[in-house]
């Protein structure tokens, strides 16, 4: 079989080296004669592995001491509910910034628990590209329990690199599709959360990085498994955690360290994204309508000049070993998700295919 590249937005491709390691020790983990999936999360072997995974993540993101790292159930959407339930305390209001479908979905969940002020921070440039208003124009409301935003909108392909100054208002970020793609200054955030199935590992797990002083204010009715205080006290093992996903995330963290950490990973991601965007920009057949300053390095949506060719594009791409390029149903077109695990060869193969498809059909 020739090389297959999977451009799925999530669950996304995982590093081949990680999969091979997992495969090699699938039935006999650490010489125990059983799979890691069959081992108790209370066993010394599992606890040591879990702690090492956390430490590796702390090293990669330079997470300060005064932050807890939680390995939770429920993916990204689980945190759409957990964030308000944990952070509102006796406050009634929270602020949400809107940049696309995922930030909007977060609002729908939060509205069940709080008075939400939503602010659309999208705008267009003079040449008609979609962009995000400068952080200095973002509303900061001192009465809000927190300010929530999504630094990478997976569907629209919008990534926000600048950080706002929010003063005493905790900044909460849904980093599901950008976490670990570049270094970030964790100390600027109250909470960072992410569903795992893009840059971390398999689905079912979400990572929450939470500043300690924000823990302990959960609403009484919160389900215990979503209570950061309960999970922090139990080292994320209040109940049975998603053990296989946690293990695999640990392997991904080790792989990221071997790549040279996030500085090296970011360099590679910049090169991969530039390759694809430059090709799209140089063509009259393909287009991307996001302004350069906020173009996602992880999710690159694009359109064909003629929509009626979409199905042919997808089937010819599949035949060429390039999978899952269909855009999200809400926006249509195409989308190439090129997370950390996508090698530059995958992007080169995509560009070559797009080039020959254009020559054939333009
Ligand atoms: N936030 C973002 C930015 C996402 O891309 C996704 C899923 N694609 C989610 C949240 C929801 O994640 P989950 O399916 O794990 O609930």
TrEMBL record:
Pathway annotation from the record: Amino-acid biosynthesis; L-serine biosynthesis; L-serine from 3-phospho-D-glycerate: step 2/3; Cofactor biosynthesis; pyridoxine 5'-phosphate biosynthesis; pyridoxine 5'-phosphate from D-erythrose 4-phosphate: step 3/5
Cofactors: pyridoxal 5'-phosphate
GO molecular function annotations of the record: transaminase activity
InterPro entries the record matches: Aminotrans_V_dom, Aminotrans_V_PyrdxlP_BS, Pser_aminoTfrase, PyrdxlP-dep_Trfase, PyrdxlP-dep_Trfase_major, PyrdxlP-dep_Trfase_small
Catalytic activity, EC: 2.6.1.52
Swiss-Prot/TrEMBL keywords: Amino-acid biosynthesis, Aminotransferase, Cytoplasm, Pyridoxal phosphate, Pyridoxine biosynthesis, Serine biosynthesis, Transferase
Post-translational modification N6-(pyridoxal phosphate)lysine, affected residues: 198
A Pfam family per the record: Aminotran_5
Protein's cellular compartments: Cytoplasm
Homology family: Belongs to the class-V pyridoxal-phosphate-dependent aminotransferase family. SerC subfamily.
Assembly with partners or alone: Homodimer.
Identification of the protein by name: Phosphoserine aminotransferase
Species the sequence originates in: Psychromonas marina
